[in-house]
Design a protein that fits this description.
By secondary structure, the chain is of the alpha+beta class. It contains 16 helices and 18 strands. The longest helix has 20 residues, at 39-58.
Length: 450
Amino acid sequence: MVVHDIQASSLNDIVFFTMSKSGKVEKIQSIRGMNDLVGREASRWGAWEQTIRRVLKSFHYQEIRTPVLEKTELFVRGVGGESDIVHKEMYTFLDRSEESLTLRPEGTAPVVRALIQHHFHLESGGNRVFYFGPMFRYERPQKGRTRQFTQFGIEFFDDPTPMADAETLILVQTVFNELGVMDYTIHLNSIGDAESRELYTKELKNYLNKHQGDLDEDSRRRIETNPLRVWDSKIESTQEILTGAPKISDFLNKESREHESRLQSLLKAAGVSFEMNPKLVRGLDYYSKTVYEIQGNSPALGSQNALGGGGRYDDLVALLGGKPTPAVGFASSFERLSLAIPDRDEKRRSGAYVAFVGEETSLQDEAIRILGLLWGLGVRATADYTKKSFKSHLKSADRTSSRYALIIGGDELAKKEIQIKDLESGEQVPCPLSSSLRELEEWVQKSDLS
């Protein structure tokens, strides 16, 4: 491969292109683990986002958007320096001012940073927010797991009660049901408050030290830094050792036990099914008390069956410099959900295709006038300006899954009408056209053109 410098206005402004030995310019491929989303798949994801937005707004959540770049310190302090995310997976670099920046690997810490910086939940009178956006983690790409992934999440601030935890799980169940994800299990646990975790960590550390020689390297390091993270190990031999480890449920203080017990009662009252999982700790350091994970039961998910997760993080706002603020949240990625959402039939015909047969400028004028009316009425409408025959126009209409073809030719123009062909039934009827297109607008209002 030969690399050519084709422009160099300064040392910091150099443009390159690559050329093979044959002289052919080589194609540039996407970065591994960062995938394009095109065509029908992009449409599916757009439909999912619309569904999720509708549910979130019905629960009175407001949208927030944060930058994809944040100061690295935000995630080191918020997520935890010994978490896999910070220790192994972040995209971190120095900018030209020698400041360490990171492409966000998760959404909660940036939302909390924005809350502290702008006091948005106080000014808007709301304490529930949601977000959509790309996240970045340098991990091995596999089914449902990419290095750039699209995440949606919710955060519920200023409420320490189990009812807030219950609301997020009811919301998650509602979202999943609306998306058509039915075969899943909610795994629930409590990791207690700071007092409970301190007592538990001491006992867990003693237990792990007795088995230190049989643990994997990461787990041995975490004995000193954060023993709770050992539960996240994917090494089978380490998991076998953990079967005899003390359980955090035995170390919960009264407040943590009451919170967990009340949450279970609330979920049962709301008809939310769940399973208690004493091994569940989640992979982020900011969690306290409630943690949960939604695991899909479909074989399509493989061994990586988590569809999302969340929990309570009452200490994170203060940890990042704000006033002590209780909070609970949830997040899921479209990449994982895409493996569990049924592939519904999305080929239903809708909207209109304007077919003008002829090259006269008057035909083009009329076609664009009709398209303008349809777009103005919110109708899904399109045309192919390059087609020369009625047959080729019908093929284009079929490819766009349009319900109706609105046909304009020389004869129609002379009669001041168009032919409207129903591409499902094959029925074709004329529609007169006045200068105001009033008749066409009336037809739109009584037709299925969603």
